[in-house]
Amino acid sequence: MDRVLGHAKEESVGEDVDWDYWGSLMHDYDGVVKKNPKQLTLMIQKGVPPALRGLIWQILAQSKNPQLEADYAELLKATSLHEKQINRDMSRTFPNHEYFQAEGLGQESLFNVVKAYSLYDSEVGYCQGLSFVVGPLLLNMPDEEAFCLLVRMMKSYDMRGHFTPDMSTLQLRLYQFEQLMEETVPLVYKHFQNQGIRSTMYASQWFMTLFAYKFPLDLVFRIYDILFVEGVESLLRFGIALLKANHDQILHHDFEALVDFLKNGLFEYYKVTTTLFVQDAFNVKVTPKKLAQYAQKHAAMIQKQQAEIAAEESLRESNRHLSAEVRRLEATVHTLNKEHVELAKELITRKMEMAQLQDKNDVLSQKVIDLTKIVDSQAKEVEDRLKGEIQSVMERNLELTRKNEQLEDQCASLENMLIETKMKYAASEDQRDALTRKLADLRKALGVV
Amino acid sequence: MSQTNDAASQVIANNMKPVQVKLVLLGEAAVGKSSLVLRFVNDEFQENKEPTIGAAFLTQKCRLEDKVIKFEIWDTAGQERFHSLAPMYYRNAQAAVVVYDVTKASSLEKAKSWVKELQRQANPNIVIALTGNKVDLVSTGRKGRRTSESDQDEEEEQEAMDLDEDEEDDEDYGISRQVPTEEASAYAQEAGLLFFETSAKNGEGVAEVFTEIAKKIPLEHILSSTRGSRAGGVGGSNGRVDLQNGANGQRLGGQQDKGGCAC
Fold first, then answer.
1. Is the distance from CB of B129 to CB of B213 less than 8 angstroms?
2. Which of B161, B234, B251 is most worth mutating to test chain A (most A CB atoms within 10 A of its CB)?
3. B165 lies within 8 A of chain A by CB
4. Chain A closest-CA separation from residue B139 CA (Å)
5. Which of A347, B37, B108, B205 could form a disulfide with B100 if both were Cys (CB 3.0 to 4.6 A apart)?
6. Rounded to whole angstroms, how far apart are CA atoms A180 and A170?
């Protein structure tokens, strides 16, 4: 890391500095710019003299504000919610720069400005990256002025949205950058698409730290020079200029090499000639109209995305419900399966029972048939026997009838005998009566005894 | 991670097609995510490492039995504000290292919320390793042994850098452990995570994290699915970060090639 050398290297440009111009600009900015606005652009491209840089930046951004400086002094007395987090990052900001070493003066100023800002703008609070934006300011001006310039950058230069919790402007910037790439360096754009490189992977760093995170500080100062004159959109131009300058090399790298190159190798090309960097950036055509167009497209895209997210969320929700339903149904299926198995078992036992019964039935049927046969054959025998019996009974009957007739004949003859007997008895009776009377007469006749 | 191992893994790396494992690092700001990766990839420790803005990408090859594994590591920014960017990096990942700082209780809470998010949103088979970093700062730690004489000085520097967000401690040099090993380990077990305690500073436990992850990942599955379709990626096409297009089976450029752990 030879960031520290950045200053020294740039001083070499100092020989052809137009001190008169810069002097008059500092003295009467409005007048000088009004008289020849193009000259300012030209002079800035050549580079602001390092010795005047801090002052010129403040003039360009019109950030001088005694009231705000007073506010800053007040803010320093207050305690910020983010203090510990800021503190944690202090030794991690430009850790290799002498001025920002733990024992250097820079770290305290850095802490003060970042802390004051976190109090000044509570929505932004502290966002990692901010200290890298403040660092280059502090290398050129005292902390209260750096604070005022930071406030100006955040507000008037539309950088606040790079650090707000939703980072909305950063997202827009990244989108605009990709669109610009597609238009200005289509081959690189296509190569990135093919390799799966997204602007978020390398350019968030650029836009959140104004390239200060990895780039040599002399390059970073030149970027600040332009930014204060041309506005924050110039960041896009620098980005494109870097891709253009490394065009062929980029096309030869694959994903892994690219990720590394975009972070650490991109600036090598301009390391020796910062002025060319600025000139190349100026040659990148970026019109406000185009950027507005991209912004519109981005807004539409965001809206679409949000709708998709909402749809996805509702799908996820219904998916959750359906999953629960599936689980419930699966449970039901499980119990049903169990029941089914039991029923199947039952069915089998029943079937077996039935088969057994069938067998029994067959046996019984056979028996019935046999018995029927037996019964049939026995009936005949019985009939025959009966017939025989009837025959014999009838014969006996006949015999008895005959006997009866004989007996009746006997009886009749006996009756006749009886009548004869009775007649003889009656005749004998008569005889007896006649004899009795003859006796009685005789007695009378013989004289009563 | 000796030179011999480096050479050995290099030879094998050049002869075999590596299994690519996409890994993401998540965790609160300043717990040492980037330092862990730097230790794993380059076997280095950088005092006062810049906070990661956005995300960083690094790779490292490892050997596990007869296979070569190439970790493709996305190291994410820890500050809450960058949270919304994280899904893009973890969506397709097969492994995640969720880092907390053993000297900072709140960082474990943040780690837990990352684990929850991963379990809800990431690849359902993702292997998650919970890693308590900075054990070199606590002398009574599970493996709080000192390995070099210079530790004492370094420790003081690290303490200066690691001023805690919580109310107590800081100014005095006895930085205390705020997350007991048992507590984090019990949580990890309950949540089904691998668990480690590491020091990116002295290297303790760092290689183990990646080795154990490599062991737990269904490498065969990854191999077969990468063979099937190069463009789609293992995690399907829903992830916006497509690491499949990265160099494959090819020598890595520059610094990333120097390391090499023999898993």
1. yes
2. B161
3. yes
4. 22
5. B108
6. 15
- Both tokens of A288, joined, read 């406000």
B259: DSSP letter: -
Residues 6+ apart with CB under 8 A from B34: B25, B49, B52, B56, B75
**Is residue B180 included in any domain, yes or no?**
yes
Which of A110, A260, A263, A317 is the best mutation test for B, with the most CBs of B within 10 A?
A: A260
**CATH assignment at residue B218:** 3.40.50.300
Nearest C-alpha in B relative to A194: B245
Q: Is residue B261 part of a domain?
A: no
How far apart are alpha carbons B131 and A361 in whole angstroms?
Answer: 78
Distance CA A136, CA B2 (A): 41
As for how many domains chain B has, the answer is: 1
Question: What is the DSSP code string of A374-417?
Answer: HHHHHHHHHHHHHHHHHHHHHHHHHHHHHHHHHHHHHHHHHHHH
Report whether B221 contacts B19 (CB < 8 A). Answer: no
Domain extent, residue B146, equals: 3-242
Concatenated DSSP letters of B120-151 = HHS-TT-EEEEEEE-GGG-TTSTT-----TTH
C-alpha closest to that of A183 among A86, A94, A291, A260? A291
Locate A196 and state its tokens: 């799966």
Find how far residue A291's CA is from the centre of its chain.
36
- What is the least distance, in Å, from the CA of B253 to any CA of chain A? 7
Coil, helix or strand at residue B194: strand
Nearest Cα residue in chain A from B55: A201
Nearest-CA residue of chain A relative to B50? A92
What are the DSSP calls for A119-168, one per residue? HH-TTT---TTHHHHHHHHHTTS-HHHHHHHHHHHHHTTS-GGGTSTT-H
Report CB contact under 8 Å: B50, A93. yes
Q: How far is A214 from chain B (nearest CA, A)?
A: 10
Q: Flag whether pLDDT at B169 surpasses 90.
A: no
In a domain, B30, yes or no: yes
CA gap A382, A378 in Å, rounded: 6
**Residue A101 CB neighbours (<10 A):** 15
pLDDT tens figures, B32-61 = 999 999 999 999 999 899 999 989 999 999
CB contact under 8 A, B245 and A167: no
Question: Which is it for strands B67-76 and B55-64: parallel, antiparallel or unpaired?
Answer: antiparallel
Q: What homologous superfamily does CATH list for A3-286?
A: Ypt/Rab-GAP domain of gyp1p, domain 3 (1.10.472.80)
Provide block-wise average pLDDT over 10 residues at a time, chain A (449 residues): 42 68 92 91 90 96 96 96 93 92 88 97 96 97 97 96 94 95 96 94 94 93 94 95 96 94 92 89 91 95 92 91 93 93 93 93 92 86 85 88 91 90 91 91 80
Asked if residue B208 lies in contact with residue B196, where contact means CB atoms within 8 angstroms, the answer is: yes
**b/e sequence B201-212, b meaning 16+ C-beta within 10 Å:** bbbbbbbbbbbb
Q: Which of B81, B160, B165 has the CB atom closest to A84's CB atom?
A: B165
Hey, where are the domains in chain A?
Answer: 3-286
Which of A163, A213, A256 is opposite residue B59, by nearest beta carbon?
A256
Read off the pLDDT of residues A292-350 as tens digits, 9 standing for 90 and up: 999 999 999 999 999 998 999 999 899 999 999 999 999 999 999 999 999 999 999 99
User: What does residue B82 show for φ and ψ, rounded to 5 degrees?
Assistant: -90, 0
Mapped onto helix, strand or coil, the DSSP state of residue B68 is strand
Burial of residue B67, with CB atoms counted within 10 A of its CB: 0-12 exposed, 13-18 middle, 19 or more buried:
middle
Q: Do A128 and B243 touch (CB under 8 A)?
A: no
Distance of CA B67 to the CA centre of its chain: 20
Relative orientation angle of helices A217-230 and A234-245, to the nearest 10 degrees: 140
